[in-house]
Backbone:
């Protein structure tokens, strides 16, 4: 993942210059609002089933990353690996949305695991790797997140199609029963 792409998606400037409605759409603020209130509005709009499904994957990733790397690299690098995973995980759903919405989704998933300062650093800065393999790990972990995010969204779409089919069958059954009575 390039620093420019990561910064673009997670740009604090985007959060400050846009407000997010409950539907996830954005509009230009007519006045300079408090960045935290804009972020709170964005987070409030993320009460979606995807975030809940993502949360279970995020918990597992947090545990795996700490178990695997805690004794090998500094906490800031583990935090950034975690942010890379979350960024990848949420990209299939939020990658085409406004960057502030994608950022808010990442922040909503990262924040419960660390202090606000660490979460901010993990989302905004790429620590200098202390080991030669860490840079490749950032990219690998993000790719793994993307793969999991795609699997989740594909599974959700299959479930939606099945539910729609079952709902259609129920409606047809009700119409037939009504006509027979």
Residues:
């Amino acid at each position: 993942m390039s620093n420019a792409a990561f910064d673009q998606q997670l740009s604090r400037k985007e959060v400050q210059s846009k407000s997010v409605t409950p539907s996830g759409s954005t509009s230009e603020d007519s006045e300079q609002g408090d960045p935290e209130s804009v972020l709170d509005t964005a987070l409030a709009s993320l009460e979606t089933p995807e975030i809940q499904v993502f949360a279970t994957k995020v918990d597992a990733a947090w545990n795996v990353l700490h178990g695997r790397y805690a004794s090998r690299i500094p906490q800031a690098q583990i935090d950034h690996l975690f942010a890379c995973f979350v960024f990848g995980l949420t990209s299939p759903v939020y990658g085409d949305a406004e960057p502030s919405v994608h950022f808010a989704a990442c922040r909503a998933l990262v924040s419960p695991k660390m202090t606000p300062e660490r979460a901010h650093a993990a989302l905004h800065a790429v620590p200098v790797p202390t080991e030669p393999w860490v840079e490749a790990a950032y990219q690998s972990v993000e790719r793994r997140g993307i793969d999991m995010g795609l699997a989740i969204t594909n599974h959700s779409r299959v479930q939606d199609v099945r539910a729609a089919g079952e709902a259609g069958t129920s409606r047809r059954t009700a119409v037939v029963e009504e006509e027979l009575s």
Residues 1-35 have pLDDT under 50 and may be disordered. The chain is about 75% helix and 5% strand. The first helix runs from residue 3 to 9.
